[in-house]
Queue: 4 jobs
Job 1
Amino acid sequence: MNTIERKNQTLLYCTVTFFFVILTVFSIIIFWPQNGSGKIKKLSVEPGISLRKLASHMKDEKLISNAYMFLSAVKIMGKSRSIPVGTFNLKNISSNYFIIKQLFYDSPVLKKITFIEGWRLNNFMDHMATELLIPSLQIDSLCKNIDFLTKHGISSDNVEGYLFPETYFFSENPSVKNVIGTLLKEGQRFWTPSKLLRAKKLGFTKHEIITLASIIEGEAVHDQERSIISAVYHNRLKKNMKLQADPTVQYIINESPRRLLNKDLKIDSPYNTYMYHGLPPNPINSPGEKSLNAALYPEKNNYLFFVATGNGYHTFSKNERQHNIAKRKLQKLRKALKNK
């Protein structure tokens, strides 16, 4: 074997040895033993936290015993720039490898939360505060933040009517921007180009359709009546009649649903559709998809009035004489129930 061959062989040996040592060191770091507890440990990772602060927090919580080795393992595995967000239930914290695997490759714990059609902003706020532990003041402040509203295409002074009622899944301890933003984006998904065009053909803006849909949501109990109720309001608007919608007055008095009194109908407010023509300035609740579709696609009829029948349904009338007959029937029913 000549000198060149010996040098090449020595170089190859050194190279292999070097990579073997590096691989061994990396393996030791990645599989470095941590606390080794068999108990399930909960870890919440806040948005924007640095890797170093996360490691320090984990050490304080006794999830790891060596923060430096954990940081090194995360960097070796190429995850230092993809810090997860959410709450994780760590089932195995025996080594860096198993902790990193659960943090960076498994999904965080998700919380199911449902928002109901017809809820007002304060209902959404209370539910978020209870279920997601977000302070009401934070929610209220963001929902009235003009820059935030403008970013999401809302011209109103708050998000009333725009928080889309649906079932969502959030990680534990989510940020208020994440939650409100998710509900607003879900609402935007409803507004396809064809629905925006439909609103324009009807002579309404998107905001006006949402406002009308919120009134329909406040009136309708049974789905089959939504498009009929919508038609009544469309017909009254075309004839420049006051809408005389009870839910708009309920919105003003801000009390639990009750029978309206004559004095309620005299409250001077732009939301009082017994006093003022046209739609109120903003939605009065968050309408669901069925009410939004009803507002866009009303039934074709000549009804101008409707009154409750006492079982969730309504009697629809084309003129005031028919309407008065229907009202007397309802009054007789209420009187009979009261005397029982």
Note: The radius of gyration is 31 Å.
Job 2
Amino acid sequence: MMIKQKYRILCLFFVVSFIILLTGCNGYRQNTQYTVRLSGDTKGLPYEGQCTVQRARFLSGKSTAQGLDMKGTIDAESQEQDYQMSGYFIYCAVANQSTTGIIKVELLQNNEVVASAQSTAPDKPAILEFGQKP
């Protein structure tokens, strides 16, 4: 009789622990793969900027920030520059470093555009913000 009661208590403990575990994981942030794509409407457009991505650590779920500097030139109108990042929140500010032309910045998730912005001058950067804010 004593063994059955210990067994019931042990089973109850495991059920309660499982429920607590599931409840705790409900707010867990998951990292997602993103592609930041830059393109321009004029050959030779220079660009410069930075993206910051918030990443969740695997076991703790704590957040760490990772930055990526972007600097280059759009060599052809149809050429795109892709940058890969992974996290749960991304913020990008990229500016056209010329007074002519337009730099287009797109954020892709699963090959679909989820955000986009344009920059027409160095003082007017394209700003992208997407995901769960930290």
Note: Confidence is low (pLDDT under 50) at residues 20-26.
Job 3
Amino acid sequence: MTRLSPQLKRIRAALRGDWIRRWERNIWEGTISCDEPFVTLIVARLEAELFWAKSLPSKDNSIQLQLDLMPTSKTEPVFQLHFLAPTGAFIQNITVKFTDRDHRPTISAPVEFETGVVVPFALCSPRLEFSFACFSKTDAVVRRHYVWGLKPRFLDGIKSPWREILTRGRHGETVLPVAA
């Protein structure tokens, strides 16, 4: 887990969920819960590309999290992956080929973690991984249409591309810097 800034409020959070089979799809469904209101950033890293999306603020101090493996073929193990927090955050433009049609990536997220850290969620292949981060709502500024960003005082010391992602916007994609 990567701590983004030591200034961010640390609150205990928990993740509960499991795989279910629905129609021809494997879906991991779960809930992130916290002792106070929070927001969530979901992230997918595909090689040097980083896709991200932000949830709406939590209601009931919980946010659902889902990884849906939607088959794109009736015979081949090719899937479009949907990673979402159904309160407005979704990443759905990633297609991957697995070894078989019943493949389920290993969920690597811990059951308990703290806000302000990037939590590894699932590794689908060496080139594709999913993660998420939760932030106390008191650390975020919620703007028009519930788009949030971290308060400016928390951005000092946060490196690119996280600084740009956590400043504004609802979703996006960026290219990670490549080490020379």
Note: The first helix runs from residue 162 to 165.
Job 4
Amino acid sequence: MMVTTGGAVVHGRLSNRWGPQQHMTEAGTRLERIPSQIGTWQMVSSQHLDDSARAMLGCTGDIVRSYVNPTGKSEASLTLIVGPPGPIAVHSPEICFPSRNYRLLDERKRVEIRDSLGIEHEFWMVVFQSQDLEARLLHVYYGWSTGGTWTAPDNPRFEFAGSPFLYKVQLVAYDSSQRGAADPALALLREFLVAAKDVLISVVSN
């Protein structure tokens, strides 16, 4: 009986069954502090996930924004969410984008990015192609964090199972190589690492 009850308690915490914990709620509120100006990137639109997505993920906070870089005339989108580690860890672009008329071109790749403080972060990068006449390439970077460095584990649900809450970030942009510009999603991601370090809060163990 004790084993069964213990398992239920763990599952309840991971799924946020008994409501958000204090630190997770605070983490969600602080997401709005991500600036509208990130380095050379200027926000042009801001919204939130719809109610069904928020309920599915158990989010206590989310931002969905588009940024443009006037210098390079590039555009990229940023989605940042926080919530219980179970649902936050399992949803990936490889699951979502094919249902939006994109096809996966290749297996995801793990990339390492060093921020301005010299700290190494890891992200997954995956490329999709739109299934329309334009057949544009879409670059997507994503990773998870408990408030410190960003990582790209093979099994995030297992990796973060003991965490009271979890962040996920996703950067998306169409390939702009034909204009001779750098990957917009990667460029915004590099700037985001600097902007986010004073916004995210580290996990506090209970």
Note: The radius of gyration is 17 Å.
